[in-house]
Amino acid sequence: MYVAVKGGEAAILATHDLIAEARRGDQSVPELSVAQIREQMGLACARVMNEGSLYDLDLAALALKQAQGDAIEAAFLMRAYRTTLPRFGSSEPVDTAMMAIRRRVSATYKDLPGGQVLGPTYDYTHRLFDFALMDTPDVMVGLDPTISGQGTSSTNASGDARVKPEHDARALDATMPRVPDILGAEGLMEAEVPIEGDPRPFDLTREPISFPAERDVRLQAMARGDEGFLLGLGYSVQRGFGGNHPFVGEIRVGEVSVEFVPEELGFAVDLGDLTLTECQMVNQFAGSKDVAPQFTRGYGLSFGHSERKAMSMSLVDRALKAREFGEAADYPAQQDEFVLYHSDNVEAAGFVEHLKLPHYVDFQGELELIRRIRREREQRAASEQETLPEAAE
Amino acid sequence: MTEKTLRQQWMATLARASRNEIEALLGEPPAHEVLKAPETGTVMVEGRAGGAGRRFNLGEATMTRCVVRLGDGTMGFSYALGRDARKARLAAIIDARLQGAEPVEQLRQGVHELAARQAATRDLASRKAAATKVDFFTLVRGA
Q: Which top-level group of life is the source organism from (chain B) (predicted)?
């Protein structure tokens, strides 16, 4: 039990000053601007938007600055701010097939319509430090990849000689089919179709969740869930704690427009673009007497460029379908109550970290209890000592 | 997807424009009445499982809306992601003027150019991505 305490105002004000000083660090070093964080720490901003469940790059950057880069504290700031805003409504479901692709890869199809587009990725880097980035001005930007490097000896930031791009830099196809839909056309893939009547989804920010949780609840919870927690669970599935053999059907990253139908206009208005990451995980089959074996799917969708998050989500999404496929739900990643109750890092951090707040009354109670138990134990021992010799006689 | 009306197209262009671009486009704002002051709130962004299946709530995004009325009674609306109140008001004025009876050829042209710039930016990003297109080939084992 947590009992409110009073007092300590002066100390608390002083700690606010001290945290501001700690946050600023050495004053001889220039202060970071929010725009710098937004532009140069984009992947951290994406994580804060996902776990804060609010898409706003400037606010995510501000949250990171204010929280000294603590992603969970920053997500907490986003959640708190969100509660102060009115909600105007829900968007039309975003259409990821219409995404302006920046990256799109498949581990299942080598030659897929539209092609494999590596985009900006660390996947094929050597994970060696680029010391040129350390305090050397103007080395952040590489060469324009649309310019052919043939015949030039120019080098990029990490000193590699440029090779000619393998393709002419024409724009990508305007629409690229989602990979599972290709398998779906052959009937080899579990279909993903809207449910009867295409109803509005459940909203866990408005209503308490109950179990077993439906797919819409699970996906919403995971979309705002902790990346590390979902990564661990996804990894556990791969290692055998829930047996699905997964393949990345497709990962795509890019910009998707968001449409909203205001009541006063009655037609869809395009609000602008969101950067989204989508992962379609293809898993081994399920079939039954009535249904021929099919590949099954796991789905992940997240704000910003956040592949690890989308991949982890899609692994756990598939694992959580255990009930639907009549699989035994023996492992944590397959148990919706376990996953959904523990994936929210703002709730988890709140409950874990509240332990450091004053629990004096609570602890006094425990202290009294343990002293009494010990006292009684000593008294019992003492009285047994007295009675023992008599019994021996 | 249904074909977009002209108005839906210019509203989409204005939503994607920066405040500076909107200011430059409108110039000196005409007399107007603010019917609904710029207000920032959120829109719950929905996705679909698997891309085309059951709807679910992905998370919210900030958005700002505004409604104005010009002297001739034309109402203008703006809705855009983000929290820029001034952009919202000026974009609503542009929306009203583009619907009005007065000749607004210059404004129409300006929106057109803005849309072209946005398309060029998208095209450049797409070409940069295309430069990273890759042909993996499988090596035959034991051959």
A: Bacteria
**How many distinct structural domains can be found in chain B?**
1
State the number of CA atoms in the 13 A half-sphere of B40 facing the CB.
Answer: 15
pLDDT for residue A161 is more than 50? no
* CA dihedral (A73, A76, A81, A87) positive or negative: positive
Using DSSP's 3-state secondary structure scheme, residue A229 falls into helix
B67 located within any domain: yes
| ipTM confidence score | 0.94
**What are the pLDDT digits (tens) for B127-139?**
999 988 887 666 6
Is A7 in CB contact (< 8 Å) with chain B? no
Residue B56 lies in a domain: yes
The CA-atom distances, in angstroms, between A193 and each of A298, A324, B50, B54 are 14, 15, 8, 6
Structural domain of B65: 6-130
- Of the pLDDT bands very low, low, confident and very high (cuts 50, 70, 90), residue B69 is very high
Calculate the alpha carbon distances from A5 to A2, A8, A16, A19, A364 in Å: 9, 9, 18, 22, 14
The reported pTM is: 0.91
A35/B contact by beta carbon, under 8 A: no
Specify whether the CB–CB gap between A250 and A178 falls below 8 A: yes
- Report the C-alpha gap between A114 and A216 in whole angstroms: 30
Q: What is chain A's length?
A: 393
Strand partners, A161: A155
Residue A50: its H or E element: helix A42-52
Contact A262 B65 (CB under 8 A): yes
CA distance A51 to A84: 17
- Contact: B132, A181; criterion CB under 8 Å: no
Binary contact (A223, B59; C-beta < 8 A)? yes
- CA dist., res. A333 & res. A218, Å (int): 12
**Token output for A368:** 């009294």
Cβ within 8 Å, pair A203-B57: yes
Distance CA B79, CA B100 (A): 19
A 340-359 near B (Cβ less than 8 A)? none
Is B119 a domain residue?
A: yes
Give the pLDDT score at B21: 97
B143 within a domain of the structure (yes/no): no
Confidence class of residue A362 from pLDDT cuts 50, 70 and 90? confident
Residues A75 and A48: beta-carbon distance below 8 Å: yes
Q: What is the pLDDT of residue A159?
A: 46
Please, is A159 exposed, middle or buried when counting C-beta atoms within 10 Å of its C-beta (0-12, 13-18, 19+)? exposed
